[in-house]
C-alpha cells in the first residue's frame, strides 16, 4: 500500500430512505489535489464527510457501504492518529488568539507535543507570523481563513479535506487566497480533496476534477488539469484555462437534473 494517499472503494451512502451516493471509487496520491464538483445538493459534502468519518446518528439515520482508507487505516483510526486535516466554508474558529486556534487540534484527544519550529514555519507560510497574539475577533475574513488552513495543517496530516473554503469570500480575497493555498499545498505535498461549487476554483487548484451526477451521486467524468504548480491568478486569463472551465461547465449542464426543464 502506497503511503500518503486516500483510497475510496465502492463507497455508498443512504440517509434514511434517501440514496445519496452510488458506489464511488477514488484514489488521491501524494502531492495530488482532487476537486469534487457538481450541482448544489448532489452529495459533494456528503462524500467528503464520509471520507472524514464525520456523519453522526444525531443528524439522521444513515448507512454506508464500501471502504475508505487513509494511509491504510479506516477514517476513524486515522482521526485518532490525527492524520486528517480539515477546513470548512465556515471557519469554526474559537474565541482566543490565533495561536490558541492553530494549536487546538494538538490538544484534542491524545495530547501532542508542539513542534515549535514547524508551528513558526506554518505561521509564516500562511502570512500570520506577526499575528499570533491577535484575538480572532480582530481579524478580517481572509485572515480567519488563513488561520483555518494553518489549523488544518498543524498536526502534519497525511491528508487534507477542504469543504468550500472560499465560499464566503469576495472575488479579490478569494483569488489571493487561492494563490496562497496553491503555494502552501505545493510545499507540504499533502494529498488534498477540495469540494467546491465554483468551476474556476476547481480548475485553478486541482490536478484532477471529479464531476458528480445528481443524486444519487456517482462519478460522471474526470478531467485532468495540467497547469504547472504553484499556480498564479494570471493563468485564469489564458485560453487553456478558459477552455477547461468551459469543458467542465458543458459536462455539468449536459448531465444536470435540470436539463429537461
TrEMBL record:
Presence of the UniProt keyword ATP-binding in the record: yes
Database matches in InterPro entries: AAA+_ATPase (IPR003593), ABC_SmlMolc_Importer (IPR050093), ABC_transporter-like_ATP-bd (IPR003439), ABC_transporter-like_CS (IPR017871), P-loop_NTPase (IPR027417)
Coiled-coil intervals, chain numbering: none
PROSITE patterns registered for this protein in UniProt: ABC_TRANSPORTER_1 (PS00211), ABC_TRANSPORTER_2 (PS50893)
Keyword vocabulary terms for this entry: ATP-binding, Nucleotide-binding, Transport
The organism's place on the tree of life at top rank: Bacteria
Pfam families referenced in this protein's UniProt entry, alphabetically: ABC_tran (PF00005)
GO molecular function, one term: ATP hydrolysis activity
Residue ranges of every copy of the ABC transporter domain listed in the record: 6-239
PANTHER family: BICARBONATE TRANSPORT ATP-BINDING PROTEIN CMPC, SPERMIDINE/PUTRESCINE IMPORT ATP-BINDING PROTEIN POTA
Protein name per its UniProtKB record: ABC transporter ATP-binding protein
Organism: Lacihabitans soyangensis
Lineage of the species this protein comes from: Bacteria, Pseudomonadati, Bacteroidota, Cytophagia, Cytophagales
